[in-house]
């Protein structure tokens, strides 16, 4: 039974792909596979840095920013109106802003543009000046309010089993957001 019996009905997308030596498809396929393998041969995107190197780099970046972050926090704390938010400030019309930052508080989550002063050098400095701290070191896109972090600290002192993962789950539930492992 060397004969091939084709089914009477073939569902769309289930059509067989045939290569024949007669039409040159097989040679074209071999040529294509050779090109793909030679283009990617020897290319490795391995990161040779260790976890220690990554932590060391982050520590260096925080150290560079620390004096400015302290000054911004002291200004924020001095301007605090008692509700955890700094007193509103007057900014000029053409003031540059930190844009597209998601600000997360216990009961609010919104995108905002935060104006910054000429002396601000780092995005986290601008965020702390407004009562938030970024989740990223150099280019934060999400920032957590300092009031919420203070609340978390108090809850954690009362119940040490309440960890940061539980706080993240709480925030995601309150803001109706799916929990991702990166949060």
Describe the structure.
This protein has helices at 25-40, 51-79, 123-129, 146-158, 164-174, and strands spanning 97-104, 109-115, 132-134, 142-145. The chain is of the alpha+beta class.
Report the β-strand fraction as a percent range.
5-15%
Largest sheet: 4 strands, mixed
Structural class: alpha+beta
Shape: elongated
Q: Spans of 5+ residues with little confidence (pLDDT < 50)?
A: none
Question: How would you sum up this structure in a few lines?
Answer:
It is built from five helices and four strands. By secondary structure, the chain is α+β, with helices and mostly antiparallel strands.
Give the helix/strand layout.
Blueprint: H1 25-40, H2 51-79, E1 97-104, E2 109-115, H3 123-129, E3 132-134, E4 142-145, H4 146-158, H5 164-174
Keywords:
single chain; 183 residues; alpha+beta; 4-stranded mixed sheet; 5 helices; 12% strand; elongated
